[in-house]
Amino acid sequence: MRTILFILQKEFLQIFRNRMMLPIIFVMPVIQLLILANAATYEIKTIRTCIVDMDQSPSSRELVSKFKGSSFYRIVGYSFSYEKAEQDIEKGAADLIIQIPPDFEKDLVNEKEAAVSLVVNAINGSAASLVNAYTLAIVRDFNMNLVTEMTHRKVKQPIGIEYSYWFNPELNYQTYMVPGILVMLVTLVAFFLSGMNVVREKEIGTIEQINVTPIQKYQFIAGKLVPFWIIAMFELAFGLVIAKIFFNIPIVGSVGLVFGVAAIFLVAVLALGLIISTVSDTMQQSMFLTWFFMVVFILMSGLFTAVDSMPEWARAINVINPIAYFIEIIRMVMLKGSGLKNIFHQLVALIIYAFAALSVAVWRYKKVA
Amino acid sequence: MKQFLGFVRKEFYHIFRDYRTLLILFGMPVVQLLIFGFALTNDIKNARIAILDYSKDNITRKLTQKILSSGYFILAENLDNEAGIEAAFKQGNIKQVLIFESGFAEKIERDGTASLQILADASDPNVAKILTNYTTAIVSDFQKELLAEKKLPIEVKTEVQMLYNAQLESVFMFVPGVITVLLLLISAMMTSISIAREKELGTMEVLLVSPLRPIQIIVGKVVPYVFLAFVIALVILVLGYFVFGVPVRGSLALLLGYSIVYILLALSLGIFISSVVTSQQIAMMISMVALMLPTIMLSGFIFPIENMPLPLQWVSHIIPAKWFIIVIRGIMLKGIGVQYLWKETIILFGMIAVFIGLSVRNFKTRLE
Questions:
Q1: pTM here?
Q2: Cβ contact, residue pair A163, B330, below 8 Å
Q3: Interface test with B, best of A109, A228, A284 (most B CBs within 10 A)
Q4: What radius of gyration, in Å, describes the C-alpha atoms of chain B?
Q5: Which structural domains are found in chain A, ordered by start?
Q6: What interface predicted TM-score (ipTM) does this complex get?
Q7: pLDDT in tens, B196-209
Q8: Sign of the C-alpha dihedral computed for residues A220, A221, A226 and A227 taken in this order
Q9: I need a labelling partner for B81 at 20 to 30 A (CA). Which of A90, A331, B342, B366 fits?
Q10: How confident is the model over B16-73, as pLDDT tens digits?
Q11: From A42, which residue of chain B is nearest by alpha-carbon distance?
Q12: What is the CATH number of domain B47-163?
């Protein structure tokens, strides 16, 4: 036991004697949390719109004023030629062109039917379909007004839809993203610290000094794990306080459960980092490996895009993705108040994971140069 | 000049004798692009829903049928009462519950309107919104069929054209983004540790007493990586084109030219990082922890910049990846030329100049 304590002391000294390390571990993630939580939104606030009104009639102006009146649309330009409007999209200055043909009002009066053409910049497909849905809703509204004016009778929809959004009635995106981003930042720090550690001793040559001491394998690994585990847990607590103060994130479920799961999750991540560290020859290799797993884990974890929409094989890959388990759990517990019973399956998976990774880490570390 | 070439040769040796790193360098981008190109998508398919039908009549059955056959939803369970809903949401089994009020068909017949309630698990607001949008669209389609005989007496019709991406595919958005992010992170990481490594291993002293000038050392460090990164860029572009069908509508030469400029930018950023730090570990922590998330989130790769709060939009201006994403999407998808991209070009070159200048200034020729 005393041996482990000495190793712990050595590790802490090594981490904190570099003055740049402290801000990197504690300040940078917090700043990122504060900034990035605001960046993560799919919500569309403004649709930059170009109007090409070739009719210039009272009817066309009324349609245009419907768009002007909506807070979603910002009219960035009026023009009489479609080519000019399309240039705005090419330049990236507009997202939508609404083109009203020359005979709009005439057709509406004579044929009782007129056409408007919408051109959407669809590079971002999901945003484009939202823009399309909003725009069609406004045109539908305009149609209803026309019908009411003509027939003097309100048109009724046969099926009235009522929405209720549970757990997050305002559809606040930060509530959803902040726990996820926090998990990612804590994981980043823990993963990289452990991934760099043993290989650094190899590269500098100090690993040989440790190898000739009577330290046991498990003592060595414990000495490498515990400091980072403490740092990461502390960082998680710190981040949760920040999230509560600055974003007022609801914590519906039990905080104790979050930390309990985090404790297991971090063992898995740190052990994974140590495995990478022991199989690498140089810090460069270790860095690229950690980075590779980190990017794959993060983007596949469901942090940004829903796991449910991934293909079957991608979800199969997520079985070995500890971040996916933890992000799912922390969101369920914090936002929905799920209890131990609800997260049982994921928790068991994490425990098995942590145990397996730890065994491999101890097994892979060999006390020979 | 001869000394300089010798230095460049030394750098090449350093890189090529480390097979593992080389394998990682080329293998990783390919694997990542394949995974993300196939797995990253904002379209939702097969969302699990529950249905609580108090009415069980002809119309609700038809509507249920229509909703389930749309491909967006799978029926997870039929509920009898509202008691189990919260538990099911907490378990995470279902995303949405549809509740038909009792006497649904009758009410439509008698009052002209009946109510359908949608309960969504909005802990993920984005998914909740998309699913309710899907449902609404299907229901209003269904209403049109109900009202088929009563066509609107007067109507403005819409013709919609989706520019650049008619099928609304997510890969069109993600492949250029993945190229941008991978190139920046790989290049910055490769160079950021190269100078720090010489410092840590002690070989820096040897370089300092050599007749090489600081600028020669820095340029010599960059040259080999330009080749490497350019090959990686080519591989990703080829994959994007043949595997994912992401077109290059503009000039290919222009695209490659810009890629080189962007690689230079990423490398000079890496050199800058390595010139201010003392150890490889710090260099890595900075190029990972500090670069990775802002590059992914503030570049427009996943989240559109126009939707962010204004201060963040300003912050995004200093993210190199943001400018290259505009360029690469412009050339690949919109097929535009230099005349629309001069602003981005100036910014990319300006950033290179700033980083190189700062690194040369920070480069200490003396030992501490």
A1: 0.80
A2: no
A3: A284
A4: 28
A5: 2-40+173-364 (no CATH), 47-151 (3.40.1710.10)
A6: 0.76
A7: 888 878 888 888 88
A8: positive
A9: A331
A10: 887 877 887 788 778 878 877 777 776 777 888 999 988 888 888 888 998 898 888 8
A11: B303
A12: 3.40.1710.10
